[in-house]
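Lab meeting minutes (informal)
Scribe: AK
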Amino acid sequence: MKTVVFIETAKSGSSREAIQAAERLGYFTVLFTKRSSFLEKRSEFHDVHYMRLVDLDNIKEIRKEIQILLDKGLMIESIISFVDPYCYTASLLAKEHQVNHFSTEAIRKNENKLYSREMLASSPYAPKYWVLNKDSSLDEYLNELLPNFPLMMKSPQSTGSKDVFQVNDKKQLIKGYSALLNKFPNDPVIIEEYLSEPQYLVEAVVVAGKVHIIAIFKQDIQQQKRFIVTGYNLMLNPNYEFHRKIKSAVLGIIKLHGLTNGPCHLELRQKNDKWKLIEINPRISGAGMNRMILGGYGINLVEETLKMALGIKPDFTKKFRKHIYSQYVTVEEQGILESVTGKNRAKRSQGVLYVYVKPRKGTYLYPPLSMGHRYAYVIATGDSEEEAIRNSKNAASAIQFSLLPIDEEDENTLIREVDAYNLDEQEKDNS
C-alpha cells in the first residue's frame, strides 16, 4: 500500500490539510505525533489512517516506527512534515529511505535562526545582529547595544513569536537575556536591530533550482507584549518596482541558504530601500495560509508541495486572481472560555470564504503571547482590496468569546507559566 508518513500536525490549518490532500490523492496516511490528545480524540482524525504516539525528539524511536511500517508491508512513498521543528527530521529520514526530493541540509539551516543569520552575514539582507553564546557576558556587549534600543531578542529555536520579544532599555535587556538562558541554557541568544517598517510574507517553492513565488502578503501586526500577526492581505497587484525588488531579495536569500528543492516562506521588512530578512522557514505558513492562497489563486499549495515530495511534477498555475484578506481574532483579557457566539453570523457575512474558531469550552484563553494565542480567523474576498479587508474585519467582529474570570492566585500562576518573558513585571520589594 502506497504510504505517506507525516511527522506531526496541527489539528487544523496547512499541516492538517496536507494529510487530507494525501488521502484525496489515494495514499495511505500515517501520522507520528507526540500529542496524546490526538489519540484521545482519534475519531476527529478520519483522514489519518494510522496514528502512533512517538517521541519526535528521538530520531531512533522514529526510525523504529518506520521499520514497523515496512515490516507490515507498507510502501513508503514520502516522509514529510509541515510543522516546526520536524521539517529537517522528516527530510533526513526520507533521504535515508531514498524517497527524498527536498534539500535536506538547507532545511536544517532554515530551521535554525542562527544558521540562517550566518548564511546572510556578508549579504545586504541581514539586519544588524549580535550573538551571545551561553558563556558570553552581557556586560561585554552593553556599550555596543545600549545606543541601539529598541532591540529584538530571540532564541535560535523560536517559532510563532513564542521566544521573540522587544526590549526597550537596559533593564528589559538584562531580564530578557536571563529568561532566554533559563529556558534554553545550552543555546545562544540572538539580538537584532528593531525594524519598524511594514512586514511582508512571501510563500515560495523551489523546484530544481527555480524559485516560484506563489504569493506575497502584507501583514498587519498587533504589538503588545509580542508581535502578533492579526491580518494578512494578499497583494494581488503590487507595483512593478516593489515586486522587482522583493523578488530579487527572495531569490538572493534562498540561494544563500542553498535551497534548491522544497518549500519555504520568508518574512521581510524594507529598510532604506534594502530588504531585510526577519526569518525564513522551510515550509508553508501554518493556520489559514493554504486556504488564503487557494481562495486567492486556486492553488492548493500543500497538495502541490506534497506532489513534489512524492516525485510528481507540481502545478503552480494561478487559476484565477481574487482579493483575499484574513482577519485573526485575539482576546484582551484572560479567562476560562464559557461560550463562543457569532460564528454562524460570521459565516453568513458578505464575501466570507472560511471561518475557523479554535478553542473549546473550558479552555484557558490569554491575550496573545504567541501566534498560538490567535483563537479564530475569517478569510474573506471582495471586488477590491478594500472590500476584502472590510468584509473580513466585519465578519470577525461578530465572533465573541465569553470568559469566566480566574481567581487572582491562579491568574498569577498562569501568567508565570505562559509568559516566561514578562519584562514589564514589577520587581518585588524585599526590604
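Next up, CB showed the second protein from the same session:
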Amino acid sequence: MPSTDPAETAGQIIQTLRKAAGLTKAQLADRAHVSRSLIDKVELGDRPASHALLAAVARAFGVPIERLSGQPYIDNPRDGQVHRDVDALRAVLRCYDLPDGIALRGLDEIAVDVAELSRVRDNADYGKLAARLPSLLGELIAFAHTDNSKRQAATLLISAYRAAHSLAHSLGYRDLAEGIEHKMAYTAQLTEDPLAGGLTQWARAQSFLNAGDYNHGLQLMTTAVADLNDELRRPTPETFAVYGSLHLRAATLASCAGDVTNTEAHLAEARELVARLGGADQVSYGLSGLTFGMANTVTREVASHVELDNPAAAVAAAARWQPPRTMPRTRRGYHHISLARARLMNDDQPGALTELQVARKVAPQQTRLHPSVRETTAVLVSLHRRSNRDLVSYAGWLGL
C-alpha cells in the first residue's frame, strides 16, 4: 500500500509507524537488528534509507517494503496513464491459460514487435511499454496454446513476460511482478531451452531481493548457475548472457546482505566471463533484453560497493570506466542513480545532484519512479541550509 502522502520520505514513514507502535528508536533498532544511530539519521533525513534497512524495518513492523518506500507512486500526474494501463496488463495476465479466439498474425511479424518491445524497455519508456504489452501478450498467449510453432511462440512469450516483469517491478507493483515470475516458469518449460529457465530464475530472484530475503535468493542463484554448468562447456553468446547475469544478480543479493566475500566472488566470476568474451562489448539472450558484458559488470560493482557502505570504492570504480553510448538507457540511468547515492554518502552533495540530473536526462521516467532517487533527493533537500534552485526544481519534478 502506498503512503497516503506522496511527499513523505521513507524516514518519515518509519517514524510514523514507530510512534504508532509505541516503540522508541532503540526498541525499533533492536527489532530490526540495526543500529540506533542509523534509525536516527534516516528519520531525521540526514541519510537515505538503503534497501537493506527498509527490508529489516519492514520485517520488524510486519508490513511489505512498499509501505515504507511509498510505491507505487500514483500521485504524480506525469505518470498517471502508465498506472492506468497496468489494469489492462493485469487483465491479460489473469488469462494466461485462457487464450482468446483472436485472429493470429504470423510469428515472424510478432517477433518484430517483441524486438521493438525490448528496445522500448531498454529505453525505460514505461508509458509505451504499458500501452503495448497487453495486446502483444494476448497474441502470444493464444499462439502458445496452438499446435503450430508452440516452442517458438513460447520463446517470444517469455521475452514479453520479461518486459512485463521489468515494468511491474519498476512501477512498484511487486505482487504483479511475482505473479509474472510464475508464468515465466511455466512458459520456460514450453521452450525446452535451459537458458529460458535461467532467465526465469534470474527474474524470480528479484522477489527475494524486494523482500529482503537475500539468503534464499542466493540459494536460488546457486541452483540456477549449477543447472547451466553443462551449457557452459559449449558456450554461445546467449549462454554467457544468462550465466553472467546470474552471477551479477547473486552479487546484488550478497551486497545487500552485507556479505563482502560472497559479493566479490560473484563479481570475480563475472569478470572472468567478460574476459572470455574477448572483444565483445555485450551479449544478449534472444529478444529478452537480458544483456551481459563489461558495462553490466562495472555498474554492478559500483552498486555493490554502495550497498556494502563503501562509497569511496564505488566512486573509484566508476572513475576507471565510462558507460558506452551503446549501453541501454535503463542500465546507464541506474548507474548514475547508484553514483548519486555514493557521492551523497561521501558528503559530495553537488556531485550527488549532478548524477541525479544525468540520470534524469538519460532515463527520465525510470529516474522519477525510482525509490533511491526520491530518498537521495529528500536527503539533499534536508541537508541544504540554503535554497538551491536546481534542487528545488528537481524535487518538484519528482513530486516531493
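CB comment: DSSP finds 22 helices and two strands in the chain.
No objections, moving on.
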